[in-house]
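Tutorial, part two.
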Amino acid sequence: MLPIAAGPEDRPSETSLIVGVAASTAERVHLARLLGGADALLLVSNADQARAFFELAGTAPRIVTAHEPPQIKAVPEPIAELRLDVERRVVRWKDREQPLTRLEHDFLHCLVAEPGQVWTYERLHHEVWGNEHLGHGSHIHSVVKRLRQKLTNLGAAVTIHAVRGVGFHLLPA
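Running the prediction step on this input gives:
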C-alpha cells in the first residue's frame, strides 16, 4: 500500500492529486481514512490502473513514493480495549483471555505498542526473532494465523491486517 503524490511541480498553488495503490478493498478503505483530508484522492488496486488514469487524463505525473507506511493518528476504540498482560503472557478482551506463546506475545506486543502503525516484515522480524528478515516469511504468517484465531476466540473487535508486501498492523475488525 503506497500513497503516491502527483501534481505539477512548478505550480505549487494548484491542487495535488494523491493516488493510493492498494491491492485489497480493506487496504483501500484504510487509505481513504488516512488520506481523506486530501484535496484530491484516487484509490486504485494496482499501478496499471493509475497509469491508465493518467494516460486518459493526458498528464504526466510527478511521482513521490512514501518512504514509511502510513500511520493512523488516533487509536481506534476497539484497539484501546485490547489488553496484553506481559507478565502472564496473555491477551485479554473484556472478561475473556487467551494464553500466548512467546512469539505470539512478542508479535502482538509490537502491534499493540503502536496501534494502527504498519510494522514491516523486517522490523517485526528484528523485534520478535532478534535477527534480520530472510525473505520467505512463512513463520511470520504462521504466528499471525494463530493470533487471528485467538483474537476471534476472544470475540475481540480487532484483527491483524496484512499490508501486502509491507507488513502488518492491528485494526478494528
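The first helix runs from residue 25 to 35. In part three we will examine how such features are distributed along the chain.
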